[in-house]
């Protein structure tokens, strides 16, 4: 059996954990390729107009992957912390894929901390579904969690090293599935790096500093991933020259957190880029050029 991993949405949060878990169990897997224009168009064909760009991309990855593997991993995640919730797309992802693609097999697990469905329990169940014993799955999960933590610490270390440099630094603020996507974030990253900008990413904030930094802006953030973004902004804003926010339209949680950040930024230079489609690179580059000119001129908007 070969498991398919769609390279979108949850992949960019959980890929190190998934791959380490399957590697420990010696279960083969395949990842979809980087996002292309074809991926987006395939996803649009399977989406309703109101779907956000990130979800359309995800469905496009399912389309490109479904004939290359035996089963596709599609988790359902409702809550990661007791009094919070994740994006509704993550809540309904399993049901959405199951009802949209009648011909594919789905490997699923459920995380809902609010209702006592924890991550480790979910992975033990997934191991059982794959034919492994409780001990085998538990050992694989423990190995995977260690690797996941090591990768996060490496990211935090990268950020610390960049912050020590005497250079122009910009915080790229957004969900990992936006920042790391081949058609959204990577084009912007490439442009900024060509212009000698050192980049800090919002997911590089130390995890143990999220709650305290979020509370400095707001103590009532319902959506976990957006809480992370607000915390990252507060933590990095005085350490960088400016912030660029990347968001997919029409994300409800992002619209709230983006507005909150804009209102709390004071004189901190901040650019918001919201993507509904990916057909106009020129407009994005023009806005980036203007933002860099503003930073060089010491202008505060």
Detailed description of the structure:
This protein has 301 residues and is α/β, with parallel strands linked by helices. It folds into two domains: 3-146, Rossmann fold (3-Layer(aba) Sandwich), CATH 3.40.50; 165-296, Rossmann fold (3-Layer(aba) Sandwich). The protein is 51% helix and 13% strand. The chain contains twelve helices and ten strands. The strands form three sheets. Strands 2-1-3-5 form a four-stranded parallel beta sheet, covered by helices on one side. Helix 1 (11-25) crosses helix 6 and helix 5 (119-129) crosses helix 6 (134-163). The radius of gyration is 20 Å and the shape is globular. The mean pLDDT is 91.
Indicate the mean pLDDT.
91
Stated plainly, the CATH topology of the largest domain is called Rossmann fold
Q: What fraction, in percent, of the residue positions are helical?
A: 40-55%
**In order across it, which strands form the biggest sheet?**
2-1-3-5
Query: Topology as H/E string?
Result: EHEHHEEHEEHHEHHEHHEHEH
End-to-end gap: 55 Å
Beta-strand segment tally: 10
Keywords:
alpha/beta; globular; 301 residues; 2 domains; Rossmann fold; single chain; 13% strand; 10 strands; 4-stranded parallel β-sheet
